[in-house]
Specification:
This protein is 21% helix and 27% strand. The chain is α+β, with helices and mostly antiparallel strands.
Length: 344
Amino acid sequence: MRRRIPCATFLDLMRRLLLLALLCPLLSSAQVFDLKLPTANDALLKGDGPDYFQFVDRNFEGQVSYPWEGGQFGFWRDPRRTSGGIAYARFHEGMDVKPLKRDGRGDPLDDVLAILPGEVVHVAPVGKSNYGSYIVIQHNWGEGPFYSLYAHLKEYKVTVGTKVAAGQPIARMGYTGAGIDQRRAHVHVELNIMLSSQFDLWHSTGFNTPNVQGIYNGMNLLGLDLQALYLSHAKTPVTSIAAWLKQSVPQFEVTVPGSARLEIVKKYPWLASGITATSSWKIKCNRWGLPLSVTPSAQTVSAPVVSWYQESKFPLYYQTRGLVSNTGKLTVEGLRFVQLMAGL
């Protein structure tokens, strides 16, 4: 004889199943965003910058120094004296992590680790990039594809197509690439969005040299502030990059024609509430051009224009890594960048 389940018990069971169904996506997101450090060096999370970041060589106004701050993400390189104080003209799109171990010759022995679970999509040919030997891994936890990049490597432990877990060794640290010597050996690490699948076409209209790296060329990958992400995640676990990026401070806005393909919105739908026909689009960006939001506009423009920017005591050119001039207009480099980002 079959035993009947009491109605109250059945309803309670259904409620539990419904609650589990609602919670599963949240739990899955939290589990997938399993952010690990790129090496065994954990000084970043202890607040020890000098032990974590590799120094840079600096000669500013005749004074030679070796500041570790230059290894951080952001505007820390090429200091310039301005009326508002010292500004930094060169943007550094990743973190330079110094080694913990070296062999008798002084070469680093540290393994480089995948910072998130994903799939290896690019292993760069040796000697074909300023990054030296580098690897790109694609990650997708439901908010669009993100790409971690690991540069200046000595040797690879993975190939294209390898599925990797967070914290899995993928390479050995080295000092390959332009301007890197043994004493400054490090791994340069980035976490990026991809700007365009049409990068080859864009590249061919502005460069005479071939694009060896395809869509995984560093110019087509735009970095998040990975350093800030680690520190935020250590304090309060981040489960949504989209929500985390909404806290970013915008620096300027560009208005682009309505004909823009806006592949970035198709890849990262959280940038906009939806794509519909409109006269133009307004793209709000942070200091280095990372898009923060895309909104429709009734304004008619025939080419990209700067429609807003944040005032600063420093020259706007330095505040925007050269994308916007001090008069508030897109530079030649800025126009090219917006054309790639917007799909024009």
